[in-house]
Amino acid sequence: MVEQYRYHNPKIACNPETIRFITELSAAKVPLIIITDGRSVTQRNKLDSLNLSHYFDAVFISEEVEKEKPNIYSFNQVQQLYKAKDYYYIGDNITKDFLSPNSLGWCSICLKDDGRNIHSQENNVNNEYLPQQYIESFKELMIN
Question: What span, in angstroms and rounded, lies between the C-alpha atoms of 81 and 118?
């Protein structure tokens, strides 16, 4: 069962708002990078099922880089590969998503749980783990 779970192609879909947000950033030539924890095949199957792979310039999966968040490795790789004035990180896991981008001076944004998250956002963590901003939806970040 574990093997079946890891290798299956999930039946999942993005909501239209998420697709619009990603499409707008891509059209504006904003480099889009994923930093995610998990097994490579599982995470790539998710991206393929969501039909999102072609939007992303780079994907850093913990199994491939052998480092899990909050390890700073993948964030440093992004800065080395993509020189920018500003970096933005959007996540949802208070316990590990924001520590590294915060330490690098990135803008960290938490997508609030709408009841479907697997990660609790009610954790008692130090301030350096907290995002700088919270959003209810990607509509709040739309370019147009």
Answer: 31
* Helix/strand/coil for 6: helix
Let me know: does 96 contact 126? Beta carbons within 8 Å: no
Token code pair at residue 81: 């590969």
- pTM: predicted TM-score of the whole model, two decimal places: 0.90
Phi, psi of 17 (to 5 degrees): -60, -40
Q: Residue 92 belongs to what domain range?
A: 2-141
The residue behind tokens 């490795």 is: 73
- When divided into structural domains, the chain yields a total of 1
Question: Using 50, 70 and 90 to split pLDDT, how confident is the model at 23?
Answer: very high
> How far is 41 from 43, CA to CA, in rounded Å?
6
CATH of the domain at 116: 3.40.50.1000
- Per residue in 42-72, pLDDT (tens digit) is 999 999 999 999 999 999 999 999 999 999 9
